[in-house]
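Dear H.,

Thanks for agreeing to be a second pair of eyes. The structure we're designing against is below in token form, covering all 233 positions.
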């Protein structure tokens, strides 16, 4: 039978359960860490934007701009417009958490400026992954409905690109945090280096959890595909 995770499948339900638990735990940890260190001020009264600006200038990325983005913890760097997009709390705030997050995003800009290989690889995968994420489920459902093994295999291949993207994202995020902590430590900007590390580690765990769940789901799909092939032969 071509279920591939649909219907009453205990293996797939276990993955869903693990996904919900990991997602809830990591989100709770990042919220707690951010809330704690957002109440601890950085030295010299500098804001996240000001410290990130200094970091960019010192690392040869002066052309990068800094703009405001709505929302809570919605911060990101966009290589298309070469801007750090910082939420109000991290752009104008002067806490350990605000400075750490802003400098993490500055780390991504520096990766771009210096041609950091994993970042370049992740950027190259973006159009492929966008297509894969929008189509793999549709292809899978059609393959299951029509009992076409070729389509189900194609769906798994498309999903594998998403998993690859998440795996490549891990060193990119870890390196950006490493650059942020190294700069803050060298510049003497943050009172508590441990706090900056905790905030950035909590954020990184969300990527680790997402990658782990995706790998589990890919292994599950591969095992179901192989099981169905064995049943047919």
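And this is the sequence the design step returned. I haven't edited it by hand at all.
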């Amino acid at each position: 039978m071509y279920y591939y995770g649909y219907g009453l499948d205990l293996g797939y339900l276990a993955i869903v359960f693990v996904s919900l638990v990991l997602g809830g735990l990591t989100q709770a940890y990042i919220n707690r860490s951010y809330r704690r260190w957002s109440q601890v001020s950085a030295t010299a009264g500098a804001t996240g934007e000001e410290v990130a600006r200094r970091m960019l200038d010192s690392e040869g990325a002066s052309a990068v701009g800094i703009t405001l983005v709505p929302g809570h913890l919605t911060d990101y760097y966009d290589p298309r417009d070469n801007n750090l997009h910082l939420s109000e709390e991290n752009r104008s705030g002067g806490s350990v958490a605000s400075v750490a997050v802003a400098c993490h995003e500055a780390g991504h800009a520096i990766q771009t400026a210096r041609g950091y290989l994993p970042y370049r690889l992740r950027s190259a995968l973006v159009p492929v992954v966008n297509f894969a994420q929008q189509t793999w489920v549709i292809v899978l459902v059609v393959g299951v409905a029509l009992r076409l093994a070729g389509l189900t295999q194609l769906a798994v291949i498309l999903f594998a690109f998403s998993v690859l993207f998440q795996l490549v994202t891990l060193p990119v995020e870890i390196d950006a945090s490493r650059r942020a902590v190294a700069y803050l430590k060298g510049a003497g900007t943050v009172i508590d280096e441990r706090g900056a590390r905790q905030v950035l580690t909590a954020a990184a765990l969300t990527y680790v959890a997402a990658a782990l769940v995706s790998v589990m789901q890919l292994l599950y799909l591969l095992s179901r595909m192989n099981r169905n092939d064995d049943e047919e032969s």
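Two observations from my side: Residues 60 and 113 are 8 Å apart (CA to CA). The chain has one domain: 10-232.

Warmly,
E.
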